[in-house]
Amino acid sequence: MIDPSAVLAPGVSVDHGAVIGPGVVIGEGTVIGCHVVVREGTRIGRGVRIDDHAVLGKLPMRAAASAITRERELPPLEIGDGCLVGAGAVIYRGARIAGQVMIADLATVREDVSIGERTIVGRGVTIENRVTIGPRCKIETEAYITALSEIGEGCFIAPSVCFTNDNFLGRTKERFRHHKGVTLERGARVGANVTCLPGITIGADALVAAGAIVTRDVPARMIVMGQPARPVRPVPEEQLLDNQEP
Question: What is the DSSP string of 25-77?
């Protein structure tokens, strides 16, 4: 079903069972898969591929006990040129996705999220609300990016990494004053199954080894490992982001 007010450019393909809502704008050459739902006002660029059963422009639900989700009017979802959105992915209204971003199958991107160009969001990744992700990042399978986090350019986040933002674990009103996610500065890398505690900063080009628990800030260009994570040696010069081929 395509709403009469939707604007589809030449060469747009819409497969059976898809729902295109009011005021949606879809750019030239975009391909919409089976049973995709595109909610009101969503703007999709040129040459985008949306796979089966994806939901674009979903409105957030706020439970009575929600700590961070806010009730307010959200701007339409924007998806840039050349993006790929996998089967069953859900991208909320109020997100902004730059060009050539890949959001893989079953990933979720919440409202007030900004994702920079050429970033890859892997299968089953969850990106909570009020998160900023820079260009050319890789966030791998089943990683969890908590609300209020910031990820700089060229960062790497391995599978099953978990960011946290509440040291009070949901108890006392005091927690509302201290909610803070995790900050990754430019070129930082985080290994598989790492847990990052609320409010920590991982410095530019730092590396957190697999399985670490990060309880304090990590200096730039330093390798840390362990539970809790502690510095062990500097990152080799040849591994720094500025020394990589484009």
Answer: EE-TT-EE-TT-EE-TT-EE-TT-EE-TT-EEEEPP---TT-SS---S--PPP
Strand-strand pairing, 230-234 and 222-225 = antiparallel
Tens digits of residue pLDDT in 83-114: 999 999 999 999 999 999 999 999 999 999 99
- Please tell me whether the overall predicted TM-score, pTM, comes out greater than 0.85 for this model: yes
Containing structural domain, residue 180 = 137-235
Q: Long-range contacts of range 176-180, CB-CB < 8 Å, 24 or more positions apart?
A: 176/67, 179/67, 179/68, 179/147, 179/148, 180/148
Instruction: Report the CATH number that the domain containing residue 7 is assigned in CATH.
Output: 2.160.10.10
CA 181 from chain center: how many Å? 13
Three-state DSSP state, 7: strand
Angstrom distance (rounded) from CA 246 to CA 37? 36
- For residue 122, being part of any structural domain is answered with no
Asked whether the beta carbons of 182 and 198 are under 8 A apart, the reply is: yes
d(CA 109, CA 143): 12
**Residue 190 counted as domain residue:** yes
